[in-house]
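Students often ask why inverse folding is considered easier than folding. One informal answer: many sequences map to the same fold, so there is more than one right answer. In these notes we will look at a single instance of the problem. The structure comes first.
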């Protein structure tokens, strides 16, 4: 259950950060004359009316020392001033990045459950760091706060079902191609297998591998939700898929060259056209790989 909650938080992290940082920017004065504790505490009062299920609100100085008693609806969660939080990630990350940040889930010292902390550095009109405003919210309340609506949730389940059906259909095609490719040469003795059948089986198995790779990626990303932010998974899958298609077409072109050279020399131009198409695909794939590598190096 904990792992599932952390995964849900990872999927909605940017939405959570955007919402809390919006509340900070709307209710806390920053980089303006008159930045003081009273203004921050007044802003905390407004934030507490919008986020009811928070654990604690507190203010740190530029050195990470809590300078006021924390604000909490639960008396047990109120921590007196003087607490040193300079070694906390939500403090030094906010100071280093100079913007509102959201921590990863971590065990809370208040109740032992998982919580996250949003923090924002407060500067005066001379752009000098004065305070760091922080809010602790339990992971459970964070997930409830940004939980999808009824329509969005059910539409997401519908999409997962559709993707699962397509994956099942493509996998059946993949299994059929695999069986057909293997059966063509295991059903015969070695003496009766010719080179053309081996080439055909190689093409079929290569296509089956390409389809299986595609099914695996779609199922992991759209059904299991392993997504990632990650463009590298899509990038690698596309390269493998197109590479498999190129290999299959290259083998087919080689077969046609041999076949037409022996039986119909006047049709060999068709094999040459196919070889040209394969060369164009290879050039396009090479350009794509070069562009991606260049983008990564920037």
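Output (designed amino acids):
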């Amino acid at each position: 259950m904990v792992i599932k909650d952390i995964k849900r938080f990872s999927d909605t992290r940017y939405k959570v950060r955007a919402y809390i940082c919006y509340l900070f920017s709307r209710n806390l004065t920053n980089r303006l004359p008159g930045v003081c504790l009273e203004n921050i505490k007044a802003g905390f009062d407004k934030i507490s009316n919008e986020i009811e299920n928070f654990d604690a609100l507190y203010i740190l100085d530029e050195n990470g020392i809590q300078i006021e008693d924390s604000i909490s609806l639960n008396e047990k969660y109120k921590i007196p001033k003087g607490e040193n939080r300079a070694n906390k990630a939500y403090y030094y990350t906010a100071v280093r990045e100079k913007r509102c940040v959201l921590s990863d889930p971590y065990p809370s010292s208040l109740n032992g459950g998982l919580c996250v902390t949003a923090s924002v550095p407060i500067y005066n009109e001379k752009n000098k760091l004065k305070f760091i405003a922080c809010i602790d919210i339990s992971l459970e309340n964070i997930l409830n706060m940004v939980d999808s609506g009824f329509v969005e949730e059910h539409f997401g389940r519908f999409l997962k079902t559709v993707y699962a059906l397509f994956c099942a259909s493509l996998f059946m095609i993949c299994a059929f191609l695999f069986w057909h490719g293997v059966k063509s040469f295991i059903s015969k003795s070695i003496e009766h297998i010719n080179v053309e059948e081996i080439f055909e089986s190689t093409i079929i198995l290569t296509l089956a591998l390409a389809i299986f790779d595609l099914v695996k990626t779609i199922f992991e990303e759209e059904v299991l939700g392993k997504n990632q932010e990650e463009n590298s998974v899509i990038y690698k899958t596309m390269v493998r898929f197109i590479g498999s298609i190129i290999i299959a077409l290259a083998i087919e072109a080689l077969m046609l060259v041999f076949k037409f050279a022996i039986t119909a020399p006047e049709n060999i131009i068709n094999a040459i056209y196919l070889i040209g198409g394969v060369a164009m695909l290879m050039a396009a794939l090479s350009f794509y790989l070069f562009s991606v590598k260049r983008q990564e190096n920037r």
